[in-house]
């Protein structure tokens, strides 16, 4: 079902938002975001671009509800506010943030490497469902899982495997499927192509864009790579040391850059284009202005298994099968 609503409705609205990590243990408080103001329309996608330390991951954590009263390592809204699907996050209770998590899918940074090693792929993807409702129908969960595994272009045979049996790129695809299993209205993704080789990256970006267009969910996607972000969204926010230094399309931002950071991005993009003109080169432009050279994809699948297209073996970690979920 397409979730686009009336024109102008905002899925996310930041108003003079400032976010701080509290001090403690001999450390001073740290201002991670300072004075952000912008909207994300319902059904649209916004790219957040910034190098390490820019504040993009902090902003995405706040959208996902990982904020609250002062506590070590937890970002706290200390100025302005951000509204997510109608919820004002600065004053939101823990219960309200938990309820919101049912409609906000969150792909954390390095999510592919954080899958539960004791669970099968199928169990990992389904875990958000059963975390909210332990009595949820296992056959329906199996259908959701199979559909998403197919949507991220993995064979159903991976469902019975464990994360260590997959490549890093396959684990990232599993993490993407897991973050979408509840059918979110808003998808928040931090470095969605992490661990995926350059040659496979374009296919994943096309896949993500297609998923968003078909389902109609809103999306906020963070990346250090402006080329990745601009493939997923025509509208970008550029962050530098917690401050927004650009908002608009990539062409608008780079036509006449008025900030040294943005000027550096423009120069690095030009360098990357010249590099791609050479034979055998594949690259992407990082927000820090450097070029990341790609590696060759090996094209192999986990354990050499084939897609059987008939049954999702929804196998528990103890080796037993959950009802032999039929997904034809």
Overview of the molecule:
With 328 residues, this protein is α/β, with parallel strands linked by helices. It folds into two domains: 1-103 and 185-200 and 213-259, P-loop containing nucleotide triphosphate hydrolases (Rossmann fold), CATH 3.40.50.300; 111-183 and 311-328, Rossmann fold (3-Layer(aba) Sandwich), CATH 3.40.50.300. The protein is built from nine helices and twelve strands. It has helices spanning 56-63, 94-100, 121-132, 138-151, 168-180, 198-215, 226-232, 250-255, 260-277; strands at residues 10-21, 30-41, 45-49, 76-84, 87-88, 104-107, 186-190, 218-223, 236-240, 243-248, 283-285, 291-293. The strands form three sheets. A six-stranded mixed beta sheet has the order 6-7-8-3-9-10, sandwiched between helices. A hairpin with a 2-residue loop joins strand 4 (76-84) and strand 5. Helix 3 (121-132) crosses helix 4 and helix 3 (121-132) runs parallel beside helix 5 (168-180). The radius of gyration is 20 Å and the shape is globular.
